[in-house]
Amino acid sequence: MKKVLITIVLAAAVLTSCKDEADGISGVSDFTFLGDVPSGNVTAPSPTSSATKSSDVLFSFDFETDNEGFTGRGNGNGWYKPNEPLENIVESIHKCDFSRGKKEDFSDFTKNGVTRSHKGNDSFFIGRVFNHDLDCATSYYHISKKLNFTKDYKAGDLSIEFDYYRPQDVSFSTGVPSISVVLYDSSHKGKFYFVPAIFDEDNWAKFSSKIPTDIPIGEYKLAIFQGGGYVGLDNIKIYTNSSSSGTKIKVNAGADATVALPTNTFDLNSTITNPDGETIKSIVWTKVSGDGVTIFNNDKEDTKVSNLQEGEYVFKVVVRNDKDIEVEDTVTIKVDGSKVLFGFTFEENVEGFTNVNNVVAKIDKYCRGRKANFPAYLGNIYSGNDTFFLGINQGDLNSWINPTSTKSINLTNTYKVNELGIQFSTQSIDPWGDTTKVIVTLKSKSGSEITSFVLQNSNSWVTTNSLINKEVPAGEYIINVEHLGGMTAIDDIYIYEK
After folding, report:
1. Of 248, 407, 385, which Cα lies nearest the Cα of 327?
2. Most buried residue, 99, 138, 306, 407, by most Cβ within 10 Å?
3. What angle do CA 177, 179, 181 make, to 5 degrees?
4. 375: buried, middle or exposed (CB in 10 Å: 19+, 13-18, 0-12)?
């Protein structure tokens, strides 16, 4: 790939009131300048490394879910509204404006028999088409977003990086950067803090540079200027450099992984590097995204999560030293449910199980809820599970009871010996000794038993997983759950194929 990095110095007479002084710029008298472009000198990029997992990322914009709060819209003919939100190109009537979309949403541009199409990026990004038929090829565009820095940073403490697309064969001799990312104070006074001006031959590439000036605490604007051409921008980050974060502690949350249900637990093992022996004030694991889940001992370097469901989870570990400087890292866990025939986690409702109330109420024996919803009985409480489950409301009833719940399932295939499995988790708190238990049975519609389990004396949650050591023909079956006295609960029932 041929890459040319151009650093441009804008003269004092350039771009202070945009349109009024446009004729003063050599070669751009036919441009329409939209928006308020601050004056000042362009600072040359300074080499840096890309953001690492241990970098403190202050701002990150990947445009996957929305426009990330960027504003600024124009039509190429002098009309510009700085506070209008950046639009999706498929919804905008101004197809030559800066817009959000995927490569297939932007019309292609062909010059000298070569077609450009933002190739090499399958995600959402912001970009601009270059199409003479749209009468917008020579317009100058500007979008921006306010950023708030909550602490002071010295020159070189921060870096900025982004991915960009700018074919070399679409160029103008304008003296204006084809695409520029600018960080400046929101009053539009003073010099630019950062302006990279980059040209690339024909693909997406990454640009990164240290921010070479002090960034005092306060409000700033991150602006993107485009001076003509078929361009794209994605994955903008402003982050601390590891050498300037105030700590040499680093943390790694571990490698991303995939878990196949019915396995619904995962060990989170972080690695903390502390070369100077700094005092570590705290370690905290949290869930960033994903449904349900319980994190055990979230204040330890290594911990465990349970109650995973099909989908994707992101967990974050944050390490803080005695100066309240934090470093963090994340790990992504994908949970594959392709082998699960039936899965009941009770996160949304009772999943069709009979004789169960959907919420914990005083008059009900058997309820769906979280541990905090169930009152204590003789000092005993449900524990160790932060998700929804089915349990006896013993605290309100204060009597020995044995509710039974059933759920019908239909197997469309016949499974040979040890080809079908069952898994579930139970808690059996036994104030009345061996009479407190949970009995889980899989039986045919006619009532013949396929397999059965008796669980008792488990003050903590216990997971039972077993293959069925007999042939199970296709047909209708019943999952039967019987609770006998005390405080007993069940969760995460799976029927799966090996």
Report:
1. 248
2. 99
3. 105
4. middle
> Which amino acid type is present at position 238?
I
Whether the model pTM is above 0.70: no
Question: How does the average pLDDT of the chain come out, rounded?
Answer: 78
* C-alpha dist (Å) from residue 267 to 112, 261, 465: 56, 15, 18
The answer to whether 246-338 and 342-497 have equal CATH topology is no
Backbone angles phi, psi at 134, to 5 degrees: -90, -5
Token duo for residue 331: 């790990």
Q: What is the DSSP string of 346-409?
A: -SSS-TT-TT-BSS--TT-SEEEE-GGGSPPBTTB---S--S-EEEE-HHHH-S----EEEEEE
Taking CA atoms, 302 is separated from 278, 284, 299, in Å, by 19, 10, 9
Q: What homologous superfamily does CATH list for 342-497?
A: Galactose-binding domain-like (2.60.120.260)
Specify whether the CB–CB gap between 133 and 232 falls below 8 A: no
Q: Encode pLDDT of 350-368 as tens digits.
A: 999 999 998 887 767 889 9
List the end-to-end C-alpha distance of the chain, in Å, as a whole number.
48
- Per CATH, the number for 3-243 is 2.60.120.200
Nearest Cα to Cα of residue 320 among 286, 358, 344 = 286
Angle at 351 between CA 347 and CA 354, to 5 degrees: 130
Residue written as token pair 């082998």: 339
